Amino acid sequence: CQVIVHDVNELTEKLFPIVEAMQKHFSAGSGTYYSDSIFFLSVAMHRIMPKEITRIIQVDLDLKYKTNIRDLFDEFDNFPEGAIIGIAREMQPVYRHTFWQYRRENPQTKVGEPPPDGLPGFNSGVLLLNLEAMRQSKLYNQLLEPTMVQKLTEKYHFKGHLGDQDFFTMVGMEHPELFHVLDCTWNRQLCTWWRDHGYSDVFDQYFQCEGEVRIYHGNCNTPIPED
């Protein structure tokens, strides 16, 4: 087993010029903080990792595994043609909230609507990055350009604070074909913040998840069930 440690400062240095433009749209702070770049690591991972690394699983720290992560790696084989990233849906109505203005202007939209037919957005706690496909996707690399980021944020009136997750969500509204949607059991989010903040009537439509949980995600400091 070979372990390679990467220097965070070194990575940030490579990342910053690529993601600087999107930080002002998807960061919590009002400015563009150099250190915030690391929250966009997944977005440009294909540009900063050595070419010989072709696939990466990126995960948050607040996870509990109920199965072998090798089984998750097998999900790469289920990517449909054109998909470059595997990601699970967001399980709270956070993007119903974020896209409120676009939704008001487009009452028939699926943007921000709950599954199975809606587009609730993504949660980046568990990510499958097919780096080779990301490198080769002309479309995806165009979407990283500052002018494209600006164009999409204007179209959707989007202002977020969740880093890479916001970028993937916005891109997924426009180009869902770039994503392989992981089953909710691979990223069973436990946070219920939005249930108590104005969305109790629709919350369960987003939060429900059938099947045996393979990875629990204790987001927003939510305790993870004991075995």
Automatic annotation (TrEMBL):
<dbReference type="Pfam" id="PF01501">
    <property type="entry name" value="Glyco_transf_8"/>
</dbReference>
<dbReference type="InterPro" id="IPR002495">
    <property type="entry name" value="Glyco_trans_8"/>
</dbReference>
<keyword id="KW-0808">Transferase</keyword>
<dbReference type="GO" id="GO:0016266">
    <property type="term" value="P:protein O-linked glycosylation via N-acetyl-galactosamine"/>
</dbReference>
<dbReference type="GO" id="GO:0140560">
    <property type="term" value="F:xylosyl alpha-1,3-xylosyltransferase activity"/>
</dbReference>
<dbReference type="GO" id="GO:0005789">
    <property type="term" value="C:endoplasmic reticulum membrane"/>
</dbReference>
<dbReference type="InterPro" id="IPR042465">
    <property type="entry name" value="XXLT1"/>
</dbReference>
<protein>
    <submittedName>
        <fullName>XXLT1 xylosyltransferase</fullName>
    </submittedName>
</protein>
<dbReference type="InterPro" id="IPR029044">
    <property type="entry name" value="Nucleotide-diphossugar_trans"/>
</dbReference>
